[in-house]
Amino acid sequence: MKLITGTGKPAQFRAVSEDCHGSKDNHHMPVQDDTQNYHIESGFQNLTHTSVTFRRALETCDPHDVIIGSDTMKILWSYGDRDPVAGSLKGHSGNRGARSIHFLGPMFRRPADALQRDDLRQWDVTVKNVSIDTSMDTLYWCKILKAPTLREKHHIIGYEALLTKESSTKQPLVHHMTLFECSTNSYPGSDPNSWDVWVKSSGAVCNSNLLTPRDWDSCITPVATWGVGASGQFLPEHIGIPIGGDKGAPKYYMLEVHYDNPRAKRVLDHSGFRIHYTRHVRKHDAGMMISGVSVSDTQMIPPGQKLYRNVGICGPSCTGAVFPAEGINIVSAALHSHVAGRKMKLRHVRDGKELPRIVEDDNYNHNFQQVRQLENETSVLPGDYLITDCAYETVGRRRPTLGGYSTKQEMCLSFITYYPKIELAGCYSMTPVKEFFETFGVFQFYAMNMTDVENLFLYNGNILDLLPTTVFPNFAPGGDVDDEQNQLAIKALQNAKDYSIIDEEDLLYKESILNKLIISDPVEFHDRTFLSHLNQLPWSEPLFTRRVEQSILTGKHMTFCRVSSDSISVASEIFKYPVFDTFVKAPSQCPYHLFMEFADHTSTATKQMSSTKLLVLFLLILYRRFCTGSYH
Prior knowledge:
Strand content: 25-35%
Cofactor: Cu(2+)
Mean pLDDT: 83
CATH architecture of the largest domain: Sandwich
Keywords: Copper, Disulfide bond, Glycoprotein, Metal-binding, Monooxygenase, Oxidoreductase
Radius of gyration: 28 Å
Domain DOMON: 1-80
Oligomer: single chain
Number of helices: 10
CATH superfamily of the largest domain: Copper type II, ascorbate-dependent monooxygenase, N-terminal domain
CATH topology of the largest domain: Jelly Rolls
Low-confidence stretches: 462-483, 485-505, 600-632
Distance between the termini: 60 Å
GO molecular function: copper ion binding; dopamine beta-monooxygenase activity
CATH class of the largest domain: Mainly Beta
Strand order of the largest sheet: 27-24-30-21-31-34-35
Number of strands: 35
Pfam family, one: Cu2_monoox_C
């Protein structure tokens, strides 16, 4: 805790500072540091405002000072009704708050002459009166919009969020928004006239096999993205995202809004974006793509973990096939996860060596998802790897957290702005379905072969569409079923129960595909849903959890390259996690930091050694009993 205070009336104001840190007992006064590292530059006060300018080294080597780096930092502020007295800082009452911030790196700024330019235009893209009911915890709503009529190509130079009052508060209703370009001729038999009809409609639920028109699946290329706590972005002056023109320019866009309503509000929402564009075309066409972990139940974070990693890989099968020979240049990136996210980074690997991290945040705050503009553009060449690396904390959770769209589930994504624009909308990866189940010792399910199970995950299928029609005769006991295997499947589904599901309102687990797959092989797990199987695994044993984590991280990955043009087709590929030399940050010059790093490594190694010894001892005991005949 660092205190900047002032004394005296406005005409006699004098700014002073005290370098202090918080006490372990929250009720005690802050404790003054042995060294004072904050230095006042200037200050003034009038009848309404107090302003103080001060400086501090980024790294002070004071154990009570936080290093100021590229991580998200939280500023706590408070003020009293009266000037403080030395040694007494009471009386802040309700005048306090907190704000997350990125101290280092360039800031997105509107062009200096923007307000004076008559060529800068605005396009507001919003949903229309979406009704959020108290029963809706999570809702993804999509709205089709028609682009402005522009005969010549223009450039989008920036965008800002337009939020309703409820989403501008400390507990916003809108969690994130994305604006996508659409292709109107992606599917055979599609009616181009349907798009104008959809423009006039209020929209539909996103990602629904039943409620979302199939043609909307062509809306995959992001143009603008916003996450909770962010403001938007304005692009550097040498790039712009193309909009308008006659030659193949997108005429329709889709706005996707994710509503998070855990406090059961009843709201009428009309949030969206304000897009800023100009007829003065800049030097380079820019684009945006998404990279990371494919949203799927195969993304799994065990319960009770201080940190557990998932990675999404964009590999050479995509970068080598789609990137131009000179590569692309990344200018900004936004990292996106949900509530459990604690650390995120966008990594860059070339020729067996990891290059400096493109973006890294070891203090990630899911409530502050500001786009990160890079101080130096990063060139990514064909054949390079882009790895979105996410670490989660699930200490307070009792069951596994799965990948999904709700904030109670998880994501691991990077929204990347780059130039020159290419036909790449997204590059994702996931653990191959067969390898995912085999990691947990499961090899077969009732009434479905592994190919059918893979199709469920790869094509967002419905499990009932793939099961034989005789398997579930209205789920009624006593139905005529001849096949013995199907009889076993019915019995298993009727009897299988996941006793970890207690809360009635939590339907995510009950509706998960993993909770509908009944294990048949191996026999010791049979008649158990796969989700129930996951819940019974010994996640409290560190050695077991680390082995699962490393097996999935360094095992096989299936990558998907999503392109926005019909002229390009890139097949999915399964490959092993790349072997490379990890990028190592320059070590701290502060002696106490070196001691703390050594202590952390020693503690981790000791814990791992203890777990290994216990496991080896347990195996030796079993071996001895087996050899002596005393094992029962």
